[in-house]
Write a sequence for this structure.
């Protein structure tokens, strides 16, 4: 029983981590400076609902097996068998369940972990005439990816602002054409880890 419970929470925790790996990877990429790593796990996104369902099923079975009534085991002397270890206790399963819930919901709060992009002066002034370029973005797997892109473009010389939409799979960037070109911005986005294509320029 204890071995089965241990396998259950390990499987559940692994499934929860896998379900959100497509959004956790970009954060690791920012921390580690490996932008292209964020696209390696984008393929997981279509399967995310199924993996979440599997996680819920595994933990439901684990809790059922732990909480269902059972006879107290005794040895040949009539003494109760030694208590189970913490690894197969209710408290530990509760901790693992909470951690798994945090992993599953990671895409909904991951943007809070990225630095908020700020509009910065361009070459010491904000009065220069700005141009804008719209990109189609490939490789985004959750809302956290928008912060990954906008945060990665923030502070680059010549870029005034960046607004990325996960729903539309697009990014709108305002920039100073005297300092940077649309093609250069496209290369910057690819370096961050997302394939893109210029849709329009103004």
């Amino acid at each position: 029983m204890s071995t089965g419970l241990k396998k259950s929470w390990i499987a559940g925790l692994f499934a929860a981590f896998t379900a959100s790996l497509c959004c956790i990877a970009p954060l690791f990429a920012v921390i580690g400076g490996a932008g292209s790593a964020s696209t390696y796990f984008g393929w997981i996104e279509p399967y995310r609902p199924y993996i979440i369902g599997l996680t819920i099923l595994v933990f439901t079975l684990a809790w059922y097996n732990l909480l269902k009534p059972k006879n107290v085991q005794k040895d040949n002397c009539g003494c109760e068998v030694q208590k189970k270890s913490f690894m197969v206790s209710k408290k530990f399963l509760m901790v693992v369940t909470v951690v798994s819930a945090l992993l599953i919901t990671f895409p909904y709060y991951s943007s809070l972990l990225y630095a908020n992009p700020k509009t910065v002066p361009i070459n010491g002034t904000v009065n220069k005439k700005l141009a804008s370029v719209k990109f189609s973005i490939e490789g985004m797997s959750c809302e956290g990816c928008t912060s990954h892109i906008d945060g990665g473009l923030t502070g680059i010389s010549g870029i005034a602002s960046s607004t990325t939409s996960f729903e539309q799979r697009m990014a709108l960037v305002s920039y100073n054409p005297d300092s940077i070109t649309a093609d250069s911005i496209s290369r910057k986005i690819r370096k961050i880890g997302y394939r893109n294509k210029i849709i329009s320029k103004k």
About this structure: The radius of gyration is 24 Å.
